[in-house]
Amino acid sequence: MFSGIVETMAQVVKIETEQTNKHFTLRNPFGEPLSIDQSIAHNGVCLTVVKIEGDLYTVTAMQETLRLTNLDLLKVGDFVNVERSMLMGGRLDGHIVQGHVDQKATCIEARETDGSWYYRFAYDSSRDMIERGYFCVDKGSVTINGVSLTVCEPDIRGDKGYVSVCIIPYTEENTNFKYIQPGTVVNIEFDILGKYLSRYAAILNNK
Q1: What one-character DSSP code corresponds to residue 86?
Q2: Gap between the Cα atoms of 103 and 136, Å rounded
Q3: Phi-psi region of 128 (alpha: psi -120 to 50; beta: other; left: phi over 0)
Q4: What pLDDT shows up at residue 207?
Q5: How far apart are the first and last CA of the chain?
Q6: Which pLDDT tens digit goes with each residue over 28-62?
Q7: Which CATH number fits domain 103-205: 2.120.10.30, 3.30.9.10, 2.40.30.20, 3.40.47.10?
Q8: What is the DSSP letter of 172?
Q9: Closest by Cα among 171, 7, 170, 186 to 82
């Protein structure tokens, strides 16, 4: 379980393909040792540390994870947002994030707005997806590339959903949002509470 408060960025130093899986080796940016089996969110994707060599660690993404996320687009040298799992008893500064990315979204607008940054994203939508809670509500929470953000200007038109977010300069500088531009593919995780409520409502309506 995560909070969507990105700790730092990790740089990809090696990518290996094994059958339908990909092994990503990254440089440890946390300033303290990691451990095997530790869970770390990478661009919002919960992955398990499977290997440690000095200041490098390796995680593995399976085929389904690669299909649903932007990890398959990573190249050596890219930076990913990373967050270690939450500590019980700590403050929840963001919102409840599972690290289970729902789908990819594409940036369609990115601009500076008098000291902050504005981004708008488009994602696939359908009645079935809406019934499963794959949509956004104004002032709700959404996770984009592992960053917990407040929703503004949500919309659904035809087979596309849209969501905008505004971020402060600190977030822009300390996450890979600074590399996002129109056409960039990001990971999106919708609010788990909203998904439960939407699914429950769909079940009641289908009785």
Answers
A1: P
A2: 13
A3: alpha
A4: 56
A5: 33
A6: 999 999 999 999 999 999 999 999 999 999 999 99
A7: 2.40.30.20
A8: H
A9: 7
